[in-house]
Amino acid sequence: MTQNLKSIIGEYIADFKEKQNLPFVVKPSIPIVWFGDREKYEASPKKILTVALNPSRKEFEGSRFDIVDLDSDFADEKLSKTLCEYFKRNPYSWFRDFEKVLSTVSASYYENRAENTAIHIDIYSAVATDPTWGKLSDSQRSGIRRTDLFKKLFEILNPDVIIISANQTVLRELFSQFRCVKREEDIGGKIGFFIRKYKCGEKILISGRNLRGQPFGGMSYFEIDCAMKNILQEV
Questions:
Q1: What is the mean pLDDT of the chain?
Q2: Helix, strand or coil for residue 86?
Q3: Is the peptide bond before 215 cis (omega within 30 degrees of 0)?
């Protein structure tokens, strides 16, 4: 583990400790700095990152994580280990639609399924809440919001491809440096269903419609595959 990564994990742990007793924070839980095998992500030919807003209470409704004692010795290493093992245990079905998109860029969250191993991070907070971000009040959101930590982690992870399914407000706030270069609209004849490609230097961002909290929701694998073949053509 690099010193930069060790430092940012420490910042996430400190942030979680400040907020863990808030009434809308899931208990018991841990800070979900990322989901997936970070070491395999870093060793992949293309580093591919999926992004959403904040973790769900459903992440703690099964044995998906070890509840690490954040005051114990080597808490950062223990936390890293359980986060890296997420897709080897009992991942939440919410990730299935992201997996459809990942398959079109030779990636997967799961080991030995594709050339590249993807991981997932959240923009606004690593703290799991009930309800999730979209249903929190403005004051609740401001109480856990830490986009500064997201930006630091994003820089450390340094992805080649970012895949996100969020509204334009989120894109303008966090990814304003990316320019839209290609788009597929009304996918499968469904008005408002889209996938768009953005670029910033050599980095690519793929954005798709979010349907009631489900990333790229409402689009079949076939529709996503056809749209992505056009989107990924060089501009």
A1: 95
A2: helix
A3: no
